[in-house]
Structures are given as C-alpha cells and as structure tokens.
Specification:
Elements: H1 2-19, E1 20-23, H2 33-46, E2 50-56, E3 72-78, E4 80-82, E5 91-93, E6 106-110, E7 121-124, H3 126-131, H4 142-155, H5 165-168, H6 177-185, E8 198-204, H7 207-225, H8 240-250, H9 263-272, H10 278-289, H11 298-302, H12 305-314, E9 323-327, E10 344-347, H13 355-363, H14 366-369, H15 371-390, H16 409-442
Antiparallel strand pairs: 1-10, 2-3, 2-8, 3-6, 4-5, 6-7, 8-9
Helix pairs in contact: 4-6, 7-8, 15-16
Length: 444
C-alpha cells in the first residue's frame, strides 16, 4: 500500500508541472466580495434548494505561510442543516417552516485531514463559510480571526470531533481539541474568503436531491462517528474533491468514484482524463449540469439506463443548468493574508482535452455566468421536448433495447406519464423564476 501511494505521488509530481494551468487575473478583476454577497439573497429568493461546489485558490499569509497550490474544495448544501440533536457531525433537511430565503438555511462541508472521526467539518450558513464573523468591507486583522474562532466554538459545530494522534501531539496543551481545530480551520474550512479566491458551480436542485445528498453524507460518515473505522485522508485516494464529488453524485450530478490510493486508480485517472482536483471537478460538474442534450423524449430517456435510473430515483434529471460564480478574497485592508494568489489551478490536457481553454470560454459565456440566460436556455430546450411530445404518437420501447433498458409497454407508458409531467412542471417553475428575476430587476 505504501509503495503504491509513493508511486502515485511520484507520477503526480512529474505530471503536474507539465499539465498544469493557472489563471492569475480574472476573479479579482470582477465583482467585489460585497457585490457577490449581495447577489446571494436574490439567488436564494429564486431557488430554495441548491448545492454549491467551490474550489479555492492557495492562501498566502503575511507571515510567510503558503498552502498547497492545488487549493481546496468545499460543498455548501442549501436546504440542509446540522442535526444538533446528536453530539457528532450529522445532517438533516432543515426543519419544516424554515425560511429558505435566509442565507443561514444551509450547511458547508469541508474535509479536514487532521480529523479522525468524521469525513468533514460542518458550519452554518454561506456567510460564515465565506466571511466568518467579518464583513467584506471592514478591515481584516488578527482580531477578525479571533472573533471567527470564538464564533465557531460558540456554534458547537466542532464539538465531538477527534483528531489523529500525530496531529494531537502538535496541539498546544492549554487548548481544547475544538479550539485547535478552530484555529486550523480558519481560511480553509470556514472564513475561506479571508485569504482565498473561489470558483464555484452553483447547481439548482430539488428537495429530493438534497435529501439524497444528506442521506449519503450520513450513511458514509456513520462508520467514522461510531468508531468502527478511522477516517484517513489521502491526497491521491480520498481527498476533499473525492468527498464533494461523491456527495454531488448522490444528488445525480455525475457518478460516484471509488476512493482508492492504489496504483491502478492513478492509471485509471490518467487514462480517463479525470483527476480529483478541486477546479477540475467544478468544471466537470458545470458541464454535466448544462448538458441539455440529455433532456430528450421520454422514450429516449427510458432506453438510456443511467438517465432512467437517475430520474426514477430522484424524480428529476439533474440537467437543468448550473452557473459559475467567482468570488474574490477579502481585499479591504487585509492585514493577515496576501492578495494575488493564483485564482484557478487546473490539471490540463492541452492536446486531447484542453481544460484551460474550456474554462476560459465558460467564464465568458452568459449561459454559464448569468442565471437568467441559463434559465432561458434551459426553458427553450424543455419547450422543444414538450412540443415534440404533443405532436408524437404514444412512445414504445426501443425495438433493439439494451438488456438494462428493456421494459414493457406498460412500464414505458407509466414512465412517460411521470417524465412528461416533470417536463411540464419544470417549464412552469422556470417561467416563475424568470418572472421573479425580472421583478427583482425592476424593483416592483
């Protein structure tokens, strides 16, 4: 096992300088942190449920500290909350009656490698994830850090967490485990905008998708919180991007990837051009959620095993669009962190799959950057399918279906009824949201 991990890390060390791509300019030339924050309230009024995957740049402190150039990734699940009835990390859907337009009605999940009894650290609300206890337009000092540490301790979100022995030895004797985790977590697990730029995929979801993500997080975390297993972070086989990827897979965004540090896994990643690296995963998720070619007729979806299974499980196809959001670090009188860190790191494959070029194009495409354009594009596709359905005869199973896609006429008819009803309802939902956006713009 150790030999395999060593070989894997050696290959990555050789490949990364050759296949890396970094963008140093775009985020901090865009909207300010305060402007981005102001936009969150509008988005929350349009979408009650969504999941955001953010990749973060490296951070550099004024005292000389610098984090990994690959950055970090965190998941924010809107409509999910911490389950405070248990003394360990666990999620639930937010209680009935919760005002989902409030930015606090969501939970941020960050993999913290020094923790031994949980895959993640959970904190409440997007504001705390980005800004801790500070405001975007106030000076950032060591007192800002202390206030954020005190706030996360008061929230109880770090209670019940344990850390690996090798890190426990580094803990100051006069600090509790929670206090030690709080100081380490600032700028990585929460208050990430203190010293990092963010590139995020904001993916609208249904309540059933959020419930599926919550169930996955709780089920996969159970062996760690019960002590049956010990969580062991691995740069190659079980890192922050693995976790966020697999949680999103539970919500229908792509497919779960087995976590493994084996040499075979590294070779598979190389051949398939997929590496669990934060911004690579964000780009893949954006492409997946915006692949409107997968929104097809009921018959075509029925005869596609994977798409049919997703729809049967979640009651939706997770292809209704996602937007990119770029969030700059705290630049106003920041006395703790240095600005101008690399905003984006991608593992690129220039000849066969130019990820850098795709990412640059995506940043300039209104269908990816503007929620109204994104919704209109999706609406047009749904209306095309609706029109085709009304003008088509009753569908029948494919004459040459794959074994996994075969089914009776009755099964297809039942599927078509549900699928076409979903198309109709999705059109109504998007039209309602576009009307809400127009209302917000006019202020009426």
């Amino acid at each position: 096992m150790r030999a395999g991990r060593f070989s894997a890390l050696l290959i990555i060390t050789i490949l990364i300088p050759i296949l890396s791509y970094s963008n140093y300019s775009s985020i901090e030339e865009g909207a300010t942190l305060a402007q981005v924050e102001a936009g969150h309230a509008s988005y929350d009024s349009i979408f009650p449920y969504y999941t955001v995957q953010c990749s973060f740049s490296k951070e550099r402190k004024t005292d000389g500290y610098s984090s990994s150039f690959m950055g970090h990734t965190v998941l924010y699940i809107k409509g999910a909350c911490r389950d405070k009835s248990v003394p360990y990390p666990k999620l639930k859907l937010c209680d009935p009656g919760t005002d989902l337009t409030k930015k606090s009605s969501g939970v941020a999940l960050s993999v913290e490698k020094i923790v031994s009894n949980s895959q993640y650290v959970a904190t409440d609300g997007v504001d705390f994830l980005l800004n801790g206890s500070s405001l975007p337009d106030e000076p950032l000092t060591i007192d800002s850090i202390k206030n954020t540490v005190n706030a996360v301790l008061a929230s109880g979100s770090l209670n019940g967490l344990k850390i690996h022995d090798k890190y426990l030895r580094k803990k100051p004797t006069d600090a509790s485990v929670a206090e030690y985790l709080a100081w380490i977590g600032v700028g990585t697990d929460f208050a990430v905008s203190f010293g990092r730029d963010s590139t995020c995929a904001r993916i609208p979801m249904t309540q059933s998708q959020i419930q599926a993500e919550v169930n996955y997080v709780n089920d996969t975390n159970e062996p760690y919180v019960t002590g049956a297993q010990e969580f062991s972070w691995s740069a190659v086989g079980d890192n922050c991007a693995h976790f966020t990827h697999d949680v999103l897979a539970a919500g229908g965004i792509r497919t779960e990837i087995p976590r493994s540090s084996s040499m075979g896994r590294v070779i598979y990643n190389f051949v398939s051009l997929h590496w669990e690296i934060p911004t690579n995963d964000v780009l893949k998720d954006l492409e997946f959620a915006n692949d409107l070619t997968q929104i097809r007729s009921a018959e075509e979806v029925f005869n596609d095993h994977d798409e049919r299974e997703i729809f049967n499980k979640l009651g939706t196809l997770p292809r209704l669009g996602a937007t990119i959001e770029e969030i700059p670090m705290h630049l106003f009188e920041n006395n703790v962190y240095k600005a101008n860190s690399p905003t984006t790191f991608l593992l690129d494959f220039p000849v066969v799959d130019n990820r850098g070029r795709k990412f640059d194009a995506l940043e300039k495409d209104p269908a990816y950057t503007n929620v109204a354009d994104n919704l209109q594009r999706t609406l047009t596709r749904l209306q095309e399918i609706q029109t085709q359905t009304k003008g088509s005869p009753t569908p029948t199973p494919s004459s040459t279906p794959s074994p996994a896609a075969s089914g009776s006429n009755a099964e297809l008819a039942e599927f078509s009824t549900r699928y076409n009803a979903w198309i109709d309802q999705s059109i109504v939902d998007i039209q309602t949201r576009l009307a809400k956006i127009a209302q917000l713009k006019t202020g009426k």
